[in-house]
Amino acid sequence: MRNVLDADSTGLVNEPGVALIIRKASMSDIHPLLDLINGYAAKGIMLPRTEFEMSENIRDFTLAFSGERLAGCGALHFYSPTVGEIRSLAVHPDVKSRGIGRALVQALEEEARQFHLHSIFAFTYVEKFFSRLGFINVERGELPLKVWKDCLRCPKFQSCDEIAVLKRLVPATGDHGHPVNANSAHSVFPILKQ
Q1: Which domains does the chain possess?
Q2: Rounded to whole angstroms, how far apart are CA atoms 183 and 145?
Q3: Which is it for strands 119-124 and 61-66: parallel, antiparallel or unpaired?
Q4: What is the pLDDT of residues 78-96, one digit of tens each?
Q5: I want to staple 122 with a disulfide (CB 3.0 to 4.6 A). Which of 15, 40, 86, 153 is the partner?
Q6: Residues 88/49, Cβ–Cβ less than 8 Å
Q7: Higher pLDDT, residue 49 or 8
Q8: How far apart are the C-alpha atoms of 54 and 59, rounded to whole Å?
């Protein structure tokens, strides 16, 4: 349970005369982040987070502010030198469908490219949103096993209804530099071949 967006989110529309600011999170953002994420967790949509967890992972987070108000958040969590997960993606209910989720994912993708990641993935209920941003559906079993550590504490672990999506940031090539099937996660996570 990780990403909360409207499936119809399209262009960026902020309040008139109020700038949308995208920036990395700082320690002083922990409590507003907890309010946003745990508000969705109370509805069973996201995993709850503690102050300790947020402190430990604050560097993963990118935030969107509408003026002084936290409008949304998302995190890029690394699983290997080439693979990262977009997680904890949430937009405040009052400002959904204004392109804030799209702006956050684009900022996280740019960050992934700066770190030379080969691919990013997410677990989501809004497959259509990610599809419009170039993600493809993959079988969750094809993702790195480390991903499952968060799943183990999820109340929906035994009956998960989230969809795994993946976006390649570099062209997939095989052992001899030849292109491989773009819809196979095995080319993204070669360790899974072994």
Answers
A1: 3-193 (3.40.630.30)
A2: 19
A3: unpaired
A4: 988 999 999 999 999 999 9
A5: 86
A6: yes
A7: 49
A8: 9
